[in-house]
Amino acid sequence: MNRQRLEQLxxxxxxGLLDDVVPFWERHSVDREHGGFFTCLARDGSLYSTDKxxxxxxxxxxxxxxxxxxxxxxxxxxxxxxxxCEFMNRHCFDERGKMYFLVTRDGRxxxxxxxxxxEVFATLGYAALAKVTGDADIRRRAIEVFNTFLRYTRTPGLxxxxxxxxxxxxxxxxxxxxxxxMADVMLAIDDDPRYERLIDECVTDVFRDFVRLDEGCVIExxxxxxxxxxxPEGRVMxxxxxxxVAWFMMxxxxxxxxxxxxxRGAKILDLSLxxxxxxxxxxxxxxxxxxxxxxxxxxHDMKLWWPHSEALYATLLAYHxxxxxxxxxxxxxxxxxxxxxxxxxxxxxxxxxxxxxGTVSTPLKGNxxxxxxxxxxxxLYCWKLLEEMAS
Length: 391
Description:
The chain is mainly alpha-helical. 55% of the residues lie in helices and 7% in strands. The chain has twelve helices and twelve strands. The strands form five sheets. It has a three-stranded antiparallel sheet with strand order 1-2-3. Strand 5 and strand 6 form a beta hairpin. Helix 5 packs antiparallel against helix 6 and helix 10 packs antiparallel against helix 11. It is globular, with a radius of gyration of 20 Å. The two termini are 13 Å apart.
């Protein structure tokens, strides 16, 4: 990419973040009465439900604290991050310290799920806010929630398995993916050497058990020894998850000055795009069966906002760190498809759910899964990386 193109792309991402996506959530998601954030937003930002998904409280807290840290120290961004933190503290934990999945507008618990992904994004939110405030209580909270995630994911039997472990024991990529990012983030507020050890363990696990270079795929679920499981859940690949793993590893490699880890992360990206890119309509498929058998997820061929957001940053980062021009081409391919289909030119923000051919499936802008995280994170990270590349 020449300097002119880098500067053009930088402005596209900056404007997309600060003139479109962030203002949409600032206008429509902030609950000024009860605290926290609404995410069940229709196309125009109007509410269709006031229930609050807990993991999106953590994600929104992360976003506004990170904007304060990396864009500008605006008091309103810091205030919004604090509001998210306070809502989680008051309403989002049960007596065990485990976080709910869904609460009412005023914080009464609606749903507890067996897994601990609310804890993932609360950790990121608390850590981001602790970094910019230096608040010891928030830092302590981040460490506590991180520890809860570790306890539930590493204590056999504590999290109820999806499958009968006596008949079909499984282990999954997602917890390793999350832990890679969580541990890397925690290093900014806690100098405990365990975070680097945990990162190394995750990298080892991912390449030993889930990345299949000989088969050209990254598998979501394997047996306890990393063996293939001949069932639909044992053949599933989620290209978006694999792409996140790829850039998490590349970022860690960049921080450590470990080029070998950068190259290994880029290889995961190669597999993900080779497998996941739709040769007929373009864009990234949501799920696929690595053996070419029918995918069982009804949404398998949909195009969702978050894998494309992750692919934008992953391809750009791979280009910057490796210098390989093929990643510039892959970035342009992802960029062209993403910006042609997801942004809503009339009401702002991005559509989240598209049919395989790129037409809109539902016009909503947020729900209990989609909120202010993947899109603004990708726009922010791409903007700042392009700024670095153009300098």
